[in-house]
User: Fold this.
Amino acid sequence: MARERLYLFDTTLRDGAQTNGVDFTLSDKRAIAKMLDELGLDYVEGGYPGANPTDTQLFAEEHKLNTTFTAFGMTRRPGRSTSNDPGLAALLEAKADAICFVAKSWDYHVKVALETTNEENLASIRDSVRAAKRKGREVLLDCEHFFDGYKANPQYALACAKEAYDQGARWVVLCDTNGGTLPHEVEKIVGEVVKAIPGTHVGIHAHNDTEQAVANSLAAVRAGARQIQGTLNGLGERCGNANLCSLIPTLRLKQEFADRFEIGVTGEQMGGLMKVSRTLDDMLNRAPNRHAPYVGESAFVTKTGIHASAVLKDPQTYEHVAPELVGNHRKVLVSDQAGRSNVVAELERAGIPFEKNDPKLTRLVEEMKEREAAGYAYESADASFELLARRVLGRVPEYFRVEQFDVNVEQRYNALGERVTVAMAVVKVDVAGERLISAAEGNGPVNALDVALRKDLGKYQKYIEGLKLIDYRVRILNGGTEAVTRVLIESEDENGDSWTTVGVSPNIIDASFQALMDSVVYKLVKSGAPA
Ligand SMILES: [Zn+2]
Assistant:
């Protein structure tokens, strides 16, 4: 029997941006949209053009994505025409494949929040969907507070949804905006809705306030909905949105869903899920949730004891799915095998040649274990991993040697009598016997060090001309006086390629310096600079 298509809609960049402490930059948004696209999601909601400069800029650019790139915004304001509503105009002009409108569907909110009539709210939905259709956009309508609205006034909630569908909206999305609805209620209400609107046009948008956003999404699918909205790592306001990192594997690996439905994420794409999850955490400088289902560090860890020996005999004894399917790995704390297979997989991914029985491979695994225990995060720092692997397995030329560096931070009065803090760095480098000294000022010690280091590398200078740092993140790994600092630096070159390097030290300058050095050396290797 042919399987039905189930569509996944990601709102990490819109609803996920509401998360306390999350603030996406424009380059974060571009990078995440690309990552979501590569993961195979059907829709990526980029944000709310007109609401803030970042989103406005994002939607002023062309996007070369396979996904349906979606702009979010409100339906026309009550009492205005579609041609006289600047918010709606900005939305219609946005460079997006689809427009997702949000509208009230609870009569109580129409009256109290919107201060308008039920009829005017329906007219606003009607006019907005029509206007977007005229612009050639695919249209979605998020029905805000749908479940609470349905409980209070089912006829009206349904009328809002029906209005959008009748005007040609591709999807009508039922939102559990407060996140308080329970799975059996969702299943029942969605079951009622799909009698009026075909399930192939109905979506679910669940919040996690009773920790059942994933369960609610699955309940909606059981009842007939065919689009799920969610976010990576369950990011979102308050307790978050439905977590796509849990939903994707459940839909692909659990028989009830796998037998009946097909999603856009292939098995191969799902194999990168853990990496995607981790990359997002790193971009946001958030500690990954070790206990996250499927993608958490602990999701497939078995401690020594009777479980461990059983897992070694047959992993299925204690695992509900195979960890490799989501890019995670089994870890039995008595075995070395897991570490080795990860390293091998990473080498293959990076295209670094190696011999399976080379004793150097064992050394690399040992070295990585030691370094990861010390705080290095190679999963996030692809370029540092590659350099380490190349150093252990083969040879990375010593292009140059930093003999000494010196960083100074000074607070003083400037000529205008203002108190300023200035940083200055001096770096002494040996390039093939030639001694070069560079000094630079910066807005901080790391910036000064970076500018000085890259100011003059003699014959290698031309290879690093296009190199720039695009992100710098610091995390303190354990509290107290023995705190260790981990620095992750993301760099980009003239071709738009980017990579991440890591440094670890009790001293933040030293950690930064290691990461800077790795970035420069990586660029030289990548550019094929002669030794
Ligand atoms: Zn929401």
Q: What stands out?
A: DSSP finds 20 helices and 18 strands in the chain. The mean pLDDT is 92. The first strand starts at residue 4 and ends at 5.
